[in-house]
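Worked problem 6 (solution included).
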Amino acid sequence: MRTFAVNALFLVPGQVGGTETYLRRTLCALPPLLAADERLAVFANAENAAVLEADLAGAPRVRVVRTGCAASSRPRRLFHENVLLPRALRREGASALWNPGNAALLRAPCPQVTTIHDMQYKRFPEDFPPAALLAMRVLVPAAVRRSAAVLAVSEFSKGEILRFVPGADPGAIAVTHEAADPLFEAPDVAAAASRRVRGAELAGGAPFVLVVSNSYPHKSLETAVEAFGLLAGAFPHRLVVVGRPRRGEPALRAAFAALPDPSRAARLEYASREDLASLYAAADALVFPSRYEGFGLPVLEAMSAGLPVVAAAAGSIPEVGGDAALYAPPGDARAFASVLSSLLADPAARRRAAAAGRARAASFSWEKTAAATLSALRRAERG
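Solution. The predicted structure is:
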């Protein structure tokens, strides 16, 4: 029996953004693809063990290994990964190890496959506290060099890795796109109507424009707020921003305060996946002004729900949205306002964008992601 191990020690549920969705959805899609002589051993921390066990309950040839690691403490996690985890991998007889969270083990008893989501720490170092930035500068290049294979979540991210990691081998980097959670689709008419009602309640009752992102500086959320302020007088809409406060929070709060009518903007620091699905279903548009994305999962989630998207033409976003999204230059609030205004004023344009978005989202799947991940693990094992 060949054992493919998964290092899930980085995952603190609700804290790591799109990388949580990436890991959990890929893990759920992997078991049906395993050969009869293959199994998964998922190494979980104290915070995520119960979540992963629930996700994988009943999956054949899959075991969640509880390590007891307190991953909320980065020093403890790094100690556990680089001292205790290698011993556990030997006990399991691991054939290859997948690291989904941007870092590889310094020494591993088996070949490693590591997902590098982006090179944000190079492009936007201000997003990180000093200690975290130092860790990224050391750990990410080391992971690229120590791994038998590297997974990038977009062609854009692959190019960024090659740009910023000297000596990186392009032939060792595979692209494994992400996908939208099936939760965001609503093929049942009654379910779709229920979600719209719930989303309208969460947004305060009026039609609304949605923004989904934590407030890191590179997310440029103030651009969306400024754009809304420029067009708010012509439309009855509210603005709803969903995301946790991060290092770009002062700029976002200043933009809220500068609105002609701040009462028309709402902030939800947390929404469950079910509530987020309701918000996608009820909104008239998603505005995604981020200047840099390794993938940009909210764009695909919104499209899957049939929600038109106005996004920055930056990073991987055009790769994900294709011709189904509408674009504005990053940081240009007036351009965002112009594109969004045209969309809100034209119901037929919104219907066309919704149909194009659903078709675009359907071309991505977690089964494809899982298949590419498993292929990389098999190649790494064979050497």
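Discussion: The two ends are 18 Å apart (CA to CA).
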